[in-house]
Each structure stands twice: as structure tokens, then as C-alpha cells.
Amino acid sequence: MKKKENRRNKGLTRRQFVMGSSLAIAGAATGISGVFKIAKGVSPPIKVGMILPYTGGTADEARRVETGIRFAFARSKYADRVEFHIEDDRETPSVGVEKAQKLVEKVGVDMLAGPIHGHVGLAVSEYCKSKKKLCLLAFSGNVLIAGKNCSRYTFMVGHTTWSVSAPGASYCFEKFGKKVYLIGNDYSTGRQITGFMAAEFKRLGGSIVGEGYMPIGTAEYAPYIGQIRDLKPDVVTGFLTPSDCVNFTKQFDSFGLRKAGIPIVMCLGMYGQVPLEAYGDSILGHYDIWHYSPWLTNKENLEFKRDFAKWKPGYPFMDALVLGNDVGTCMIYGLDQAGGKPDIERMVDAIAKREWLSPRGKSSFGPNHAIIHDLYIRQAQKIEGETRMIPVKELGRFGTSGDASGPGGECKM
Amino acid sequence: MSFPTFLINLLYGFTIGSILILISSSLSLIFGVMGVVNLAHGSLCMLGAYFGLTLVLWTGNFWLALIVAPIVVAFIGFLMEVYTLRPLYGLDPLLQLFLTLGLSMIVSNLVLHFWGGDVRSISIPEALKGNVLILGTVYPSFRLFVFIVSISLVISIWFLITQTKWGIILRAGVHNMELVDALGINISWVFTLVFTFGCGLSSVAGVIIGALHNCNTNMHTDLLIWGLLAVVIGGLGSFRGAVIGSLILGVSEAFGALLMPGLAKFTIYTVMVVILLLRPEGLLKEI
Amino acid sequence: MKVSRAHFKWFALCFFIVFPLGSGILFSEFYLSLLIRIFIFGIMLLGFDILAGYCGLASFGHAMFYGTGAYLAAILLTHVTGSIWAILGLSILANTILGYLIGFFSIRTRGIYFVFLTFALAQFFYLAFSNWNFVGAADGMAGIPKPNLGIPLDLSNRTVYYYFTLVILVAAYFIARWIVESPFGKVLVGIRQNEERIRFLGYNVNSCKRRAFVYSGIFGGVAGSLIVGYLSFVSPGVYHWTLSAEILVMELVGGMGTLVGPLIASGFVIYLGDFLSSWMAETWLMVLGAIYVICILYSPEGIIGILRKLGSIKRFSPIGDKGP
Fold first, then answer.
1. pLDDT tens-digit profile of A10-36?
2. Given A156, B96, B145, B167, which residue has the most CB atoms within 10 angstroms?
3. Mean pLDDT of C164-180
4. From CA A118, how far away is CA A145, in angstroms rounded?
5. What does DSSP assign to residue A298?
6. Domain A46-159+296-372: which topology?
7. Chain A within 8 Å of C300 (Cβ-Cβ)?
8. Strands of A111-113's sheet, edge to edge?
9. Contact A61/C at CB under 8 A
10. Residue A113 contacts residue A69 (beta carbons within 8 Å)
11. What residues of chain A lie within 8 A of the CB of B133, using their CB?
12. Segments making up each domain of chain A, as ranges
């Protein structure tokens, strides 16, 4: 065992070095960053915190939301004063709350751009409610935040699970038929959305011929596809997270069901959240329900795309950028109305009344602080050699009600 | 469930199982020979998938990716074994376990860093894109191809293990490494070879999965867990055991979703617990 | 001057008692929060060290106890009572039973199979709670009411909670010390070194191992209940295997079988994770993994090994060889 002892003796010096130096670096950096903060400029900085899932399946969505927010501020008069503080929520609610604590208490942010995932969003929103800090959710559409868990300090800037699912049901019913197969990942968002679609279909007089629920991260959809093939629904609808959505759609096509004429209608615009090359041709002809398309022809959208391309040329343009941008412009609007100071109470009052023309279209907030937005049915089409989600039907403006019969329960602010 | 559906489910249960064999057999042999449970196995498989993706994007040639990506990952495995695992031989196996855990974190986050978090797919060559008709049901040609390739690889490896000199050394090593050492064979290099080859083999699975399903930055966790489950069921250190364990898991995944939605995973873990309690060596003891 | 172990510990304790006075003034309130989490993990690590460090049973499913303590607290706080004493008491009871059961089954396996079995058992809990709608399934429960002490000291005040967990940590430490210094503790070490020999000496090895599970389970359960009392939130993540892995890593990095080592390591790992994630929101996990790898390659005996050399601190308990 001599080899072991020799190693132990040699290792000790290196051990000291590694442990000691990492502790020292950590301590020094904390100290240095403290000093640095004291030495900063005269005009008080505006601290914007972001809690997003940087290490997980939606990491790139996180980056896009962040980029959208940065873009909004870069174009504003606060560009020099704004400080971004970014944390990773690891797609876990308890980590999201920890980071929110850190950003609010240690860093001192005035406003938070919230998480992407519904359950993390709920936890962070609750925390911001208790600390009276502004929380703007770009993506979290957990319908409870528009209902039972609503908060004066939280704004759902993106959508709610209801507003990007149920209003599209009538289109499916009229265009495709009465028999629907529901598919969803087995967690809050998946269950909420399929629940809403089921309720709407039943109300219209349709029938649910089958349902499939599976954990997030399911790779094999052949069992469900076999079911669908046997049941022969008129349309398949529901919600799947990005990776599962790709798997399902690809396998649906490989088993010939797309050519057999059964359309998939994904809620929550899931066909826009992943670069469409991942689908190949398997997505062509399918639909989704969403409040935006990069191919909308309204003036704001064209300007936005043009300005963004100038700011970051070559950056692949995707939906989440617009959501980040909307969060950013809301913050900027709030700051403007509060006299350029991060006065949370004034900002909240201002944002609640805001009506603006976003690249998405006319946008405003309901009394429960949930967004009211335009809604479209989009279809995947191949144009000029690339796959695009083209709006084929405008459904109107939809919000999410926060009354007792509403999808999220009663909102009492 | 109609009979053709049943047979189709069975067929791709075997398909999934056969891909899993590539992962679990290498995991099993690495344990059998080296005594190391390689927790980085899932991440290395994922690395293979992403290398395959890049190669296909660069060259447009799926076959090239299928051959070159595993070679690249095998080389990385080689470096890992020589520089990080070797110094830990003879020490507490728990340390090796945790070393591989740390390596897994590094590799999976490197993938996230270099390739980004979006879901990607490896495009299937045109020739394999179509469908075949099996018992009057449409079945994707690519799945059939996957099944054939995986089974062929498995058979070749079995041949290697049972018929060649290297195979004999391997089997002897699983039995009793000290004796092999005493016979004058350089076991350090046996270890390195097994580890390297194991990494390469699981990367073949990675490329296939990247094409059949997709490449995403979370895939390593499930790959590792499924691999471990197959190995525990079949028996640590046994190649045949890994084959059987993988096929059992593949078929149960195929049918479980339909017969017992939501309970499929429970069943797998129940099986694992029962086997560990009653017969920890797994179903098979011999390689 | 020789810094003895006792001096070091008293100094650390005084530091932590005085620390909150600077909160809000010298440094942000956030650090109290960080320390609360470190204390809670420390409680769990103390128990885990008894199981893994002293007895040599490196379980990969310790999150089972943490999670059970957490969900029990969540359910009790939401539906039954807010008394922290009742919650801790019930948590201890529940985890005694759980520890015994888990111990009963796990000890039938050895080595790597033990690791797998404990892993699989913890996964059961994870899956079960991920699907149990009563506790919010995969989303967990948010906005859980805060516990109360029964005396006019408000537990929702962070400073109060800080001292509360500190007191429990100190108590836990003394209890753990007492356990490992007792004859039972010596038997555990003996079991780790050579089980056969202990059996021949007439001890019921299985019973001792089960007791070790029970003790470590109690510590873990208390920790889980405390974290829910603090965060007012619970999700199936408390059962996740990555948590068990984190616990095991802290144990390894700290130095198995030293009690103080894993305690320090828990602080180190949590602080480092928090620190790294601000600087490198995207790559911090990679850096953490690299640090683990480097630590394992160069310091298998962990932080205690370094401290031993640094201050010529007397050895507390003989770790000895790892046995055949």
C-alpha cells in the first residue's frame, strides 16, 4: 500500500492548494464585487433581475427571453443605467425562490423577469407578492396566477394556459371534426391545457375518443401513435414540452399518420419554440395556437424584426424574443410613468393600465393582470425553402377571466 | 389492442431494447472488468449524439457520422480513463463512482455550452425515410434499420467475446482480475481498452437515438438510468444479462405506456428492487 | 500555538451567534438565508455521516428521509397544526419508522448493490409524490403557512428562524457526537472495518445497522421539516436522486467519519454553488463538476484532511483502513 501513502503525501499539498484557492477566490471576488458596487456611478442604477432556466431543456428559450429584454432596454433611455442580474432556476421551484431571494435581498433588484416554467413561475410570483417586488412573467402561463394566486405585483405578459388553448377549440371543431384525441405531458401545464380543450370540445358537442398522458422527457410515442391509428380521431390536440413535441411529431409522421390526414394542433404555440429544422418535413401541414408569428405583417412586427436584425445581425429570430421584448417594454413604460425611478407602486399602477401595440398586436392587461392578446391559428408551411409557422386564421382578442368561474379560480387582489 | 398493433409494439420494444443493449452492455462490462460504475456513460452517449449531429450538418452523410462520432467519443473516453480513473484504482469504489458523476456534470454542461439548449435532430438519410408494410401496418423503415444494425453489433460483440483472444481475456478478467494480472497480461491496458470501447459503443446508440428521437441536453439522465436498470436486472458484469435486461425494459416501455399509463416507471423500479433484494447478481451471473 | 479542535468549534459557534447582528448593515439579509440553508443541510449531513462515514453504508437514497420530513411538515402545516414542536416530533417518529423499514431492506445488499437499492427506493418516493395530487403532484405545494413556536417569537422572522435552526444544529451536533462516541458508535466503526469480526464478537450486526439508519433518518427528517418551515414550499425535488448525490458528495468532500468535516463541506458546497451561479449562470454546473473531480483526484480524505495538516489538529476519530 506504499503507492497509496506516497499519493497521500503528494496529494496533500495539491489538496490544500485546490481547496484553499477556491475558497480564497470566492472570498476575494465577493469582496471585490462589494467594493466595485460602492464605486459605481452617480445616477442610481436600475436593477433588473432575471430568473430563467439556463441549465436544462429550455436553456435557449431562456437566452432568447433575456435577449429580448436586453433589446428593449438597449433602445430605451435607460440603456446606460440598467443592470441585469441573471440567475438560473434549474427548472425547479425551490431553486427559483432561492434565486429570487438572492436577487431581491442580496443584489437589491427592483423588478424581476420571471421564469419560463409554470410551477417555478408560481413559486417566484408568490415570493414577489410577499416582498412587494414587481414580477413580470414572459412565459409562465400557469392559469392559477390569473386566478387564485393572482398578485398585484405580478403581470402575466405572455399568455395563460387558457388563453392559448381553449379559444382555438372551436376552429378545430369546425374545420376538422368532432372526434378529438388529447395528448399532454403529465404535469400542471399539460393537464391544464388538455383539460381546457376537453371542456371546450364537450361544450361544442364534440367527443373525446382517447387521451394520452406521459411524463416530461418521454422519447417513445409509438404506443400512443398506435392508439391514435386505431381510434381514428379527426384531430389530435394538446400540449407537449419541446423535446417531447419533436419526438411525437416526427414519429407521428414516420408511422404515416400525417399523410393519412390527421392534423395535430399544438396549443401554446409549441411549434414555434424549437428551431423548425429539428422537425424536418414531419411538421408540414400541422397547426398550433399562439398569439404571435414571426410572419405577421403588422407594422410593429416588421419594424421589430428590422431593428432587431440591425442590433444583432444573424441572430436566429424566434418567438421568445418578442415575449422578452414585451416584458422589457412594460418595465420601461412603468419606469417612464414613475418618473424614471424604480418606484414599484407607481410602476405597478402604470403597467396595469397600459395598452400598447406590440409586434404581437394590440395588448393590454385584465384586472387580474393577465394579458389580453390577439390569437391566431398557425400552420407549418414550407416557403422559400424554409419551414415557417404562418398565421392562417385570426381568432380575435382573448384574455383570461379571474372570476370564480374562470379557469384559474377567483382572483382577489 | 389489435393483433397487428401488438406485434408492432413488440417489434419496436425489441428495437428500443436493442439500442439499450449498446448502452447497457458497455456499462455492464466496464463494471465487470474494472469494478467501476460509469455514471458518465449517459453523458458520453449524449456527446456521441451531438457529435453525430455536427458531422451530419457538416457533411450531410449519416453513415459517416455513425462511424466517426463513436471514434471521437471513444478517444475522449480513453483520455478520461487514463487521466482520471487510473489514479483511483485500488481506492474506495465510492470515489470512482463520484468521479464519474463529476465527469458527467462536466460533459453534459459542455454539450449545453457548445451546442445550445434547443432540441435538434439528426436527419435520416433519404434511403431510410420511407415506410414498410408489416402485417398491413405502416412501419417506419428507419426503425427497422435501427433494429438490424443494433442486433448485428450485438452479435458481433458476442462473437468477439466468445471466440477471440481478447474476449477470453475479458471473460477471465470479469471472473478474476488478479489472476489475469498474475498471468502477465497488462491489465491497465485491458481496463483502458474496455472503457474506450464501451464509450464508443454507447455513442453508436447516441447517434441512433439522435436520429430516431432527438438530441436534447437532458437526454443523458434517462439514458444512464435506463442503462443502469437494464444492467441491474441482467446482472452486473454479464453481457448476456445486459441483453436480456435491455430487451425486457424495451418491451415493457413499449407496452407499459398502454396497459398501465403512469405506472410504467413504478413497475420498472419495483422489478429493480425485487431483483436487488432477492438476487442482487441479477438474472445471469456469467458473462 | 496549537489550535485544538475544541477551540476551533467554539470560535465558529460564537461567530454564528454574532453573525446576524451585522445583517442588513454590514451585509445583506440574504446571507442569513444562505446560512439557514447551510445549517439545515448540516443537520442532515451529521446524521448521514453516522450512516455512511462511521458505519460505511453509503446510501444513495438519503433524500428519502429529507423528503419525508419535508412533505410531512407541508401536510401538517397546511391541514393540521402550525406548531413546530408537533411537526418535529411527528417527523422524528415517522422517520424512525421509515429508517427502520429502509434499513431492514437495504442491509440485505452490499457494496454497489446497496447503492442501487437505496437509489431505487428513493426513486419510488419521488415517483409516488410526483403523482400524488393531494400534495400537488409534480408541482408541489406553494404558500405553505409558517410554523409557530408556541411562544411570542415569530418564526416567520428570518433572524428568529436562523437562531432556531442554529440551536437545533448545535443540539444535533452534540447528539451525534454522543452517538459516535458511545460504545454503539465504536461498533459502527467496527462494522465498517470488518463486519465478520464484529459478528463473531457477538453483536447483532443487522440490528446495529438498522439503528444507524434510524438515527440518520431522524436527522434527515428534521432537516426536511425545517426547510419547509422556512421556504413555505415543497416539491418532489426533495426526493430526487440528485439531492442524494449532493449529500453524498458533501460527505465525501468533507471527510467521511469526522462529523465536522461533512458539516463544513455542506457550507462549502452550498456557498460555492450560490457564488458560482451568479458569476456563470450558464456554466456553473460544469465548474462545480470540475471542482468535484479535482477534489476526488487530489484529496480523497476531504477537507478534514487539509485542516488536519494545516493546524496539526489532533485526530478525532480513527478512520483507519477501509477494510477488506
1. 333 454 455 555 555 655 555 555 445
2. A156
3. 93
4. 9
5. S
6. Rossmann fold (3.40.50)
7. yes
8. A82-88, A46-52, A111-113, A134-137, A154-156
9. no
10. yes
11. none
12. 46-159+296-372, 166-290
